Amino acid sequence: MSKLTDLPKRILIGRALRSDKLGETLLPKRIALPVFASDPLSSVAYAPGEVLLVLSIAGVSAYHFSPWIAVAVVVLMFTVVASYRQNVRAYPSGGGDYEVATTNLGPKAGLTVASALLVDYVLTVAVSISSGVENLGSAIPFVIEHKTFCAIGAIVLLTVMNLRGVKESGKLFAVPTYLFVAGIFLMILWGAFRGLILGDTMHAPTSDFEIKPEHQGLAGFALVFLLLRAFSSGCAALTGVEAISNGVPAFRKPKSRNAATTLALMGLLAVTMFCGIIGLALATDVKMAENPAVDLIRDGVPVGAGFTQDPVIAQVAEAVFGHGSFLFMVLAAATALVLFLAANTAYNGFPLLGSILAQDRYLPRQLHTRGDRLAFSNGIVLLAGAAILLVWIYGADSTHLIQLYIVGVFVSFTLSQTGMVRHWNRLLADERDRARRRHMVRSRAINAFGAFFCGVVLVIVLATKFTHGAWVALLGMVIFYGTMTAIRKHYDRVADEIAADETPADESVRPSRVHAIVLVSKLHRPTLRALAYAQLIRADQLEALSISVDPDETKALREDWERRAINVPLKILDSPYREVTRPVIEYVKGLRRQSPRDVVSVYIPEYVVGHWYEHLLHNQSALRLKGRLLFTPGVMVTSVPYQLQSSEAAKKRARKRADWSAPGSVRRGPVERGHKGPNRKG
Amino acid sequence: MSKLTDLPKRILIGRALRSDKLGETLLPKRIALPVFASDPLSSVAYAPGEVLLVLSIAGVSAYHFSPWIAVAVVVLMFTVVASYRQNVRAYPSGGGDYEVATTNLGPKAGLTVASALLVDYVLTVAVSISSGVENLGSAIPFVIEHKTFCAIGAIVLLTVMNLRGVKESGKLFAVPTYLFVAGIFLMILWGAFRGLILGDTMHAPTSDFEIKPEHQGLAGFALVFLLLRAFSSGCAALTGVEAISNGVPAFRKPKSRNAATTLALMGLLAVTMFCGIIGLALATDVKMAENPAVDLIRDGVPVGAGFTQDPVIAQVAEAVFGHGSFLFMVLAAATALVLFLAANTAYNGFPLLGSILAQDRYLPRQLHTRGDRLAFSNGIVLLAGAAILLVWIYGADSTHLIQLYIVGVFVSFTLSQTGMVRHWNRLLADERDRARRRHMVRSRAINAFGAFFCGVVLVIVLATKFTHGAWVALLGMVIFYGTMTAIRKHYDRVADEIAADETPADESVRPSRVHAIVLVSKLHRPTLRALAYAQLIRADQLEALSISVDPDETKALREDWERRAINVPLKILDSPYREVTRPVIEYVKGLRRQSPRDVVSVYIPEYVVGHWYEHLLHNQSALRLKGRLLFTPGVMVTSVPYQLQSSEAAKKRARKRADWSAPGSVRRGPVERGHKGPNRKG
């Protein structure tokens, strides 16, 4: 049957690439940084613009608040980085937010974090791809003219790549990420040099535009609310910071210290780039409006729907490097590339989280198996489908999508940091060593401040963005939460039902004898094999059973049986209506009625074929019979396979599939023997 | 797995209705007539109109040829009826055209007939539904305004009814068919009375229209060609005549004689109605044009695209009974209903023919099983899908669809009648009794004339209609033929491959010992049951095998094992990458390498659940493992089911499904024990 369900996928994604085994390929810091930081670093491509965009609601004059908002974002970034440095030290096994929350705050908090993260992965894809397309569009107009189409195309491409199982390597991440970082820094330095030393005045393409404020002269609470909303948007720069805490096992030793260092480095790069871009945007007079068509005024008239508002990074690059210059092009390409890489990280994170959730029985058990291709594929398709839906609904508009984005991130930040506080409290209760206690108290203080700050931000985000789209993200979280709770309940119910009694006197219904039946239609090789095998099993009774649907065939079978002198009694049941299943079931039930303590063992000769369409031509009756028999108590059903020549092809395919290893492996590191998450025994 | 694939169908078609067993419910002639004749009788609803429509190409003056064409159709009808009366006598077992052609002309001819019939069933649905909608539309304008939509809706409705397994009864057919026949006869008589006795002049709604001839003053070959085309269209009246020859076993005794009488009665009714309608159409000045929008002229201007050309039967009824009168409405409803019934006969014929073809291994074997619901459903869905496609492409225009229709019918008529000639030749070779010989010679003459006449008609149809759409029907036949040939070839190849050698020295690789393995993950009831069952099977070696994916779980299992003192050795395999399938396969292969003559018997505890979504949560690893194991030679795979409480629901459903009996049973009659078709042993 698996052949059947595989087919559409196989047509689409072709043969699996054979990738090298997960070995001891641990990551040095210089590679770990791009592997884990493409997501958080890439967010500086959209976060500064979002800040300006929100401020513009109060008019261009409000832009002078932007440095203060940048400062707030920087403080938040340092807080979060400092907090997560505690996480990677406390959980060197790769304690992601889910694990930290579950261990310290209980399964409900953990499940909340998991739901938030799942929603986040979907949004990472949607936002990064949309933003990537917008950045690419600043250099290639065609892309922006067919924005939704290109964005969906990019998601499909990423999906196919991930389903095929691209061999990942650190280098793949390193080149675009470093190119992007270098490009941004070059732009900041060159811009500063031109502005401060040469005294050039640089002009962004929108520098001589005006902005019609949607709300003139905001003050008091309304202004504060607007500033908080701008800050919320700026917080998009923090998405993905937590990734390293999941990936500690992938670092070289000393794992925790290297991870912490990488985290700090990443934070430093991110804030520098964030502030630099905001600074340059102010210096080059970039104008960003929430509704550019109406609120952006050129020569006294609104620019209209035909105008495309380029991302802030593109506008600044144009001002600094010159329109259409080589460096401008390179930076646009690097930005788009690093955003696509950021989207790709979600493709890796989703199945990893899925496997941990499966281990805790919130998702189907089989997702737990590492590199289970089918489960992995289903997760990827789900992720891509949800992202495509969002991109399609929101027209690949990153500004709209960002409204949904930040809720999930701060739900998991807040719960994870709160969990860390509990963690330290628990350790402090037992710790007597003074130096260590001091260290723990300090860590606890950092995490407590992190939890508090993140909590405040979460409230701000919810308050300022709920109606702008945050409710969609919350709805998504509720759906994931509900589904996972239901799955867990089902598994728990089944576990109760099948739990073996403690007393070994469970033997009350221990079966006594076996009555074996070999199903026979004709005497061909598969049947002869089944008969030979069944005879080896020394059952208490063995008989062959044939359902007579055609008297002539039955007669031929009987003659053949005698001619070959098969020493198994042949029983023939009449089936006037040419049914096969019912007479067998009735017969088996009859046997069970006669001697209820007997077990009936049914042997079914089965053809093994190589192609899905051959499945349609064989075994269908056997399959249906088997399905029915399984519902009959006291029955074992044995398939005796006969491999047809065509099965060789399928065997090879199956072997290839087994050799496949899932993308994202490089971030997970090798499996730690003995490593144990929470609830693993649950 | 069957649960999974069933779901969409179950949502759509709900629970199966429990219908009474096929009993000895044989049909009296008065019921058999409507059961079998709704298809041929209903075709008088469109055939006369088609004749006029084709003639109109040469202008209204050509209408005076229509009585001659009617005469030709009548002669053909008598010929075909007389021929099939020979069939039902020679093949009282229900020798349909397929059987007759296969037996007498060989499998290729048989397969050609089968392909033609399959295409025909699709077209019966498409044409009858389209025409039914047009007739209904003459009374209810809404229907005609949304013609394609209504036609597809009707097909979907019929499909759902047939999938649910409506209980069929003769009465269901009898009421509308007799109502229709009575209505037509009443119309003819009342029309004749008004016209001939009262001297009324009746006017069809189109009586004062003019027709712009597409070809003025046709003569010579062109005129003959047009007349032949009109005749071809009139031949649509003959579709479905062959149905009785399939259904002889459903008649009361003396079966053959009753079937022959019914056939004659049906022919008589059909020709009377056909001629009556043509006569009335001429008397009431009905005008039909092939392209009414352009060629139908009212007050000197074309009627345009907004005009709906009502079927001839509706126009005549309006002229005779008066527009909007009660009888007009009743007749329109009865016509539509009998046409829908005609479409329904295809839903019955398709699976019957499918089961016969499956028996001869041209279609998947499981279709052979009578009342196999899944196979039946697949056939129905295929039929409906093809019909919907045609209706959609041709905009539910019966005139266009009829161009495709008649080819298949005459292919099977011609081949069947040719086969009958061979049949008599064969019998005559052995027969010495003079009276009987005379009888046979007479039958042979009838069949020979039938074959000749049908062959001529086939050539005419092909020549006059090939470019008008007959090529589509031929293409369909080629596709069916190719597919069925390929399936047969596959089965033959497999049969060769699995044929047992005649020498009983096939034992060279007879296995010697059994090594039994019980797969264990935890010690719960399903596992304990599998262990208990496996112990009953006195294998030469028995061990339990567990794949260690988590050291703690493995430790717990080991402790549990010792505590319960299970006297089966427990073997634990490490799986560093948390795979389950590969280590088991490797282990089994290792065992086989060590002692190649051993058979490995793998016992897998399996959960039996009641809902499809539960399937997603259980047994997935087991299923995959089983799939892989079947490719490994020398292995038996035994499922030891453990029925969870929820499985009760599925058990009940399965039982209900088993009680279902397929629609169309009433036409097939009870299964004849010992009845044997051609090639049944092949």
Automatic annotation (TrEMBL), chains A, B:
Record's keyword terms, sorted: Membrane, Transmembrane, Transmembrane helix
Its membrane topology: Multi-pass membrane protein
Location of region: Disordered: 646-682
Keyword Transmembrane helix applies: yes
Transmembrane stretches, start-end: 65-84, 111-133, 139-160, 172-197, 217-241, 262-283, 326-353, 374-395, 401-424, 445-463, 469-487
Subcellular location: Membrane
Molecular functions per Gene Ontology: transmembrane transporter activity
One Pfam family in the UniProt entry: AA_permease_2
A GO term from the CC aspect: membrane
Name listed for the protein in its UniProt record: Amino acid permease
Species of the source: Streptomyces filamentosus NRRL 15998
